[in-house]
Amino acid sequence: MADDSDKVARAPFGRLALEDLEALSGKAQGLIEAARDAAVEPHRRKVLRRFVATEILPYLGNISIDTLYRRLKKDEQLPQGTQVSARRREFSLEEIHQLQRAFGITPRRPEGKRSLILSICNFKGGVAKTTTTAHLAQYLCLHGYRVLAVDLDAQASLTQTFGILPHTEVASSHTARPFFEGPMAPDGQPNPEWTGTLASAIQKTHWDQLDLIPSNLGLYGAEFSIAARIRGEENFLFYRILAEALDTVKDDYDVVLLDTAPSLSFVNSNALYAADALVITLPPAFLDLQSASLFYELIADVVRTINQVQGEQKTFDFGAVLLTRFKPSDAIHQKISSWIRSFLSDTFTHAMLQTVVLEKLGPRLLTLYEVDHAEESAKYEGDRRAFERALEAMNDVNGEIAQAIRSVWERQSTEQSVRAPKVEMTEALTAVN
Q1: Are residues 131 and 253 in the same domain?
Q2: Which of 34, 113, 257, 419 is at a distance of 20 to 30 A from 286, taking alpha carbons?
Q3: Which long-range contacts does 385-390 make (Cβ < 8 Å, 24+ apart)?
Q4: Is 155 found in the same domain as 85?
Q5: 75/124 same-domain check
Q6: How many Å apart are CA 142 and CA 367, to the nearest integer?
Q7: Single pTM value for the model
Q8: For 9-55, how does the pLDDT look when each residue is reduced to its tens digit (9 = 90+)?
């Protein structure tokens, strides 16, 4: 065996100066664009596949395929789909939504009930917040809900999941950043990017009835803008910015999903205040348990201080733990999961599994709902059920969250709750940040 002396020595790494870093930034962006374009070939944007007739039956009230075809034959005004072969008919998502409306099964929020704002949160990274947000948004959309997904992480992973390059295809003015900056610029002049409504930041996605407020690195600047406004604006309630911004658009949706950054920040404090409910993603690992303990402590500090300022109690409709990255065959995962369920009673019954399927889909910018089921199942040699199990587990998770959302509407008063602002600002409010 050759020893290390036989190996060709690599040249020493060079020094890094500003101009080198700027050049590397450009190269890295080129790499990201190349990877995105390869993932969405032959299009420059993601295009949603069509759904096989047998696949859409759960979204049409779990009717039989014969019942579906009889209804289509009886009413030719209904979307007929596309006949791609003698035994295969496919439907677009828009056609599925049209059929849901025609069949009277569109599960919109009840009349008089407010749209529900759900924050997917944890102050730790790598806990599947974005994976949860993307799959939940698409699941709800498939079932007929109108969904707005809001990317509040400057790393913009959710934005990229929808096939959008955050740093070249998204202007900072088309993120939530202008609202955090406010109507006036630091020099006292009107903010040229201020529109007074989040509608100007909303983008249509390749999913019918699923819109996105994207993010990019510029959103990180919101932290400095909020800090400056706290110093310069009298009685400025910084934690209310996002809630007031969402008030301008939320009535157009049934569910608003907030994908948050892995940090305690001014923006995340806004997400906590704006949220009606919380889904706390938590892998069953020792280090993540420590992070969860810190999360609850910090969120309690934030809410306690907000309550002192508001003069009223901030109450979430629910705040439940979702176990993520769970390996059913792992003894340690099983043990820690049992501890979590024992100590944190508000934990979803179903867990998001860590599967080879999700790992393979990630680099392709795809979710479990975006791939052809039969085609994807065939890729797992020796275990053709791998994809089906992953999809079933994801549906179980999302179905349980959807039921929690419906339960909120069932117990809501017909009158929307009004958060009354308090006139005075306390210095204690900024201490938690």
Answers
A1: yes
A2: 257
A3: 386/355, 386/356, 386/357, 387/357, 389/353, 389/355, 390/353, 390/355, 390/357, 390/358
A4: no
A5: no
A6: 13
A7: 0.87
A8: 776 777 776 776 667 666 666 655 665 565 556 566 789 999 999 99
